[in-house]
Amino acid sequence: MIRLAVALCAAGTLVAGCGIEPTGVFTDGDAPTGVAPGVTLFFLDQQGNLRPTVSETKRLGDVTQAVDLLLRLGDRNREDGLRSDLPAVGSLGPQVTVSDTVVTLLLPLARREVGPRGVDQVVCTALGVHRQSGDTRVTGAVVSFTDGTTIGPRTCPAS
């Protein structure tokens, strides 16, 4: 009798399904592609808080490209009220290495050239892009400067 009850319950479940109705084929809109609309860079609002902004590059890029873009932009043409604690650098982008759980960045700047929150901008941008690329093992960043100063490993205070 118990076997019959179990068999009937199993059959009833198969017949009833999960309760989700089929929808058919959708023909509107573009298919998801997985391509990033741009890279997320971190700037500062009027209170000095970190704010992520998407720079529409039509691709995610890598950590080197993202931090290079952050350094090249500085405060240039910021119409959104955000600012940077990093000076605009015209040449020689960062050198980036990744090992185990840490990304190391050598910036083409001396520590004295970077404002109080500039290191946070670099750390958050680097870690964010690395995570977006699918690698969740990297959890900290070390930032080095041309004058020999090294900071870190640090995490992003905005996350």
From TrEMBL:
Domain of life from the UniProt record: Bacteria
Protein's UniProt name: GerMN domain-containing protein
